[in-house]
Amino acid sequence: MIFGKILYISDNIAHVENVSKGTITADLMNIHVIFEENDQRILGEVIELNDNEIKIRFLGEYMGKRYVNGVIRKPLLSSKIRVINGEELVELVGALSEKSFVLGSSATYKGFQICPDINSLFSNHLAIFGNSGSGKSCGVSRIIQNIFSNPKMTTYNANMFFFDAYGEYKNAFGSLNKINPNYSYKFITTNPQEPTDYLLKIPVNLLTLDDVALLLQASTHSQLPILERSIKYAKIFSSDNEEVIKYKNHLIAKALIAILFSNMTTSYKKNEIFKVIEVCHTKEFNFDSVIPGLGYTRSFSECFEIDSNGNFGESVLITEYILKHIDESIVEIKEPENSFYTLRELADALEFVLISEGFQGNQMMYNEAMILQVRLNTIISGPVNNYFDGSKHTSTNEFINELVKHNNGRAQIVNINLEDIDDAIAKVIVKIISKLLFDYSKGLKERASIPFHLFLEEAHRYIQQDTDTFLLGYNIFDRIAKEGRKYGVMLDIISQRPVEISDTVIAQCSNFLIFKMTHPKDIKYIEEMLPNISSDVIEKQKVLQPGNCVAFGSAFKIPMICKLEMPDPMPYSTNCNVSGLWGEEPKMATQVEVTPVENNYVTEGVATNALEESMQADTIFNGDNTSNSGADAEFNPMSGMGEI
Fold it and tell me: Which DSSP helix (H) or strand (E) runs through 258?
């Protein structure tokens, strides 16, 4: 007998007599107890004990077999106090079924697994935080492996998109089909290395004005009309039907006349006119177009030869020809359906806008437009251009289907690897794909009929408090955080620096897995952003071992310390084998070839397998595979907990 009578109750804590008087043989800290009186059963947690007194915090109440958080009425002073039994504990931690999965083992109760309800955990936004090395990547890998390994449920219709900042998850999920041949994993990357890798390709025609503005890092509202006009012209210029050609000739002619009658020098006019023809030309307007005169003809380029007086030799002829193609009755035509264009063609359209819209007369506007042009040309001339496909028209439905299509079937896990591109471009790509998935989901006839889960590794790289809202009126991640749940688009953010993540996104997360965190700013931020988090949870996560997390939120009856098993296979996320590398025979820099061995990047020839050493020395993910049992006779919460 350990618990005596209730001495007194203050706020939400019961002060209970310790009748063992210093002879306690088991660690009672964090053990759950029941205050029982007639039909009332109140759950409490031991938070402090000494030789004379035990402090127990009230957590909730059992209504029949169901547990409900919160205590409306305090227990009577005459209530009997006992340790929670197996049936009551199973109600808290859950049991494996077709609607749940094994998250990990209870760190407090040996032999009990924590099995959250899948809907409660994954139909809401999830946040996974922890220091580098705390076990986040291994934990995420284990969680996903457990979901797909659940013998009670087939997860064929899952759509999990991993935006992978460091290429960590390929090894962890690459053998998904070994669990079940119906499962498939797809690896999309900016740098394919293996035959099974797919090169990242985003259809240019799916880029909206907002996407292009983000891609070119637009910073002022005055740049948006320029980009909007450029996109419109790129779509129009990509078509060659009669109406479009007539409209193109009208636009080209107006641009040429504006240049001809400007106050520029003749040579400058010639350069600008030739620029227009270079970026936008038709049969009627190109360098070789035949310009008919009275009894003779000239080519378009010949009309702009400069005579000895510094004028165009055929100014009258070319002016009359150009004016014939201006039709003021023409109104702006609709953008052609199913149009497509490359980024180079978009750059040409932007060049045409700059020349034809008279931006040269407004130095500020011209400078802002030139910034966009320089950035676009930089993208086109670099490797980023390879990630945007303008060779054909692609609908949003076709793009989403192509994303998940794999091996004559579909992939349940799509791993998009962005480790070879800088943060600015990676952020834009993640936003573009996330927005396409969100827009696709919003367009479904049956709302939330296809769930999408967006796992963002190193989420602080993407979900930031940036200028999107100022420039565009919204941030796609804020919008998904606020609206995505009802459309079936859920964010699963993984980060070591929650303080750098958008407040709006964190505030909309319903569930949290917090691994060890020590940075005071991050800890304070979590406390301030999550008003329902208790100081006890904060204190627990400060001292967690790697691979252990505090799990709390709508999917958990009470905050729990969960011990996750080591994933199998492992992600590429373990530490560098420094001692093994240092102990090798010296090599010249040109002789060192770095290749991945298992999940460590080590120098070829290192005899020691760093992964095996790590797993032998580190048992932090060891967990039990036993299923939860509600049998009281088989349950002893004190067993295996050591002595005080």
Answer: helix 242-260
